[in-house]
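Problem: given the chain below (633 residues), write out its structure.
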Amino acid sequence: MPTETFEFQVEARQLLQLMIHSVYSNKDVFLRELVSNASDALDKLRLASLRDDAPDADVTDLHIEIDIDSNARTLTVRDNGIGMSYDEVTQLIGTIANSGTAKFLKELREAQDAAGADGLIGQFGVGFYSSFMVADEVTLVTRRAGETQGTRWTSRGEGTYTLETVDEAPQGTSVTLRLKPADSENQLHDYTSTWKIKEIVKRYSDFITWPIRLVPEAKDGEDEAREPETLNSMKALWARPRDEVSDDEYHELYKHISHDWRDPLETIRLQAEGTFEYQALLFVPSHAPHDLFTQGYQRGVQLYVKRVFIMDDCEELLPPYLRFVKGVVDAQDLSLNVSREILQQDRHIRMMQRRLTKKVLATVKDLRTQDPDRYATFWREFGAVLKEGLVIDSDNRDVILAAASFASTHDAQEPTTLQQYVERMKDGQDDIYFMTGESRQAIENSPHMEAFAAKGIEVLLLTDPVDEVWVDAVGEFEGKKLRSVAKGEIDLGADEDGKADAEKEKQGEEYAGLLGWMTEHLGEDVKEVRLSSRLTVSPACVVSDAGDLTPALENMYRAMGQEVPKAKRILELNPEHQLVKALNQAYTERDDRTELTETAELLHTLAVLAEGGQPKEPARFVKLVADRLERTL
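Solution.
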């Protein structure tokens, strides 16, 4: 096949220009990315050979090799791993065709400093392109294991790249960088220097389980074979005693696994001995990845068996609500040829999941009590996903609740635990009150909150979509029922002026006619019209019946493809509001209720708008408001 020239897509060109003009303060990261990619290719080939998926592959001496030529100013990183086919090169190297590219570019431009930019490089799978920070031209030659023909990809990062097939190519992948000139700017980054290469490998890649060999540079007139030097220790960090491993080494392993360039928030070690032995080294990230809540998010930790890599994203080791946790689990008694189907049925895997889950949750709980600042970071980044466990993991529900915290009206800055809420409950208060909504501000301004604010009763402010679900699944805490301030009837006891039940009963009789008439007139939209005990300022509000789904929950189910019937709401009126009083007086005094009908519709629509809903007929609502305004002039 002849050499073909292709153009990069627009976003890829923009990314390359950012790389070429060195937005990163630490140029060394390019070598780490290339070595990490080579390590992944070797892992994939080993796994394929164990499963007989690559029968013709050579796995006798799997390794990574670095070759430098100071005269030609080239640096080559090669591996004899799985390699790539022509089509795979097109998909994986020829373009940056992933949904994260646009977000990467946006966040990169918004990074406040060079260190912030460094933190983004591995996050969106564009590490290969970091080569253009130090190279004027990059050439990749690869051959997939088991195939006979290879592929060459070449680019100067100027908007185009070339692709061609090659007959002579060793198994695996080699990436050759023609380095930028050694000017004053690049003196600190002389990547043809042996000591510099050793320094980078030791700092970033010492733990990689494959040998990383540096080929000595040939001296003038030297033709004999050069003996490569292995640069990394290849010691599995999870198998070494804790006092022999530094935090920096742990952090580098985390970065290698997660492609995240920030340090993890927490490192968790676990060693199980007995009938089933395994070691685990888990990491809690310091920030949530951009795709944490997308369907295609790759979750799970790496699974090893006797230090042999088996699987990159073993979902069976942790539940979905801990999908943000990264790390390694090394089991001693599993088969090397284990499949996902076998893992789903394996009782040892289930035992491991239970223990790993409890260990992570205990760590989060300890963070809350021992390091509030780091806990605050964790909850801000991962609280919403952890709360999914309240719905799907009843066995650990109490532990999750103990580790959770929630915004509340008690303090505008500091969240509260359910235990702290219960300890602050007023005398005679039997329930834990909460309200869900899009934001704290929207909830605090809701009419449903008026009586609670007036009486100083604390309300939890829940703003994550999952909050609509877990409160029903949990139901209660320490015998105290979780109650929505926007559902069912609320009785907060006697008002501050001592209004007795007899007075409320009298109001009920006084408004009975209006309530019945409005219930009949608004029957298509409301289940009932009644007097409210939760309003002190607003004329009306809409609430859900105690057993009904909220509108937000209805929308959530429909978004997931589940059809649910639309539940009618209840319209509550504030009998102390002048508008409601005037409406009741007009109802009792007038026989022609045409204008009252419009007022009732307006009152209902205003209540819907107050909770963030939309008018049933926007055009009719606007016309009614305009007519009323015109009559007041």
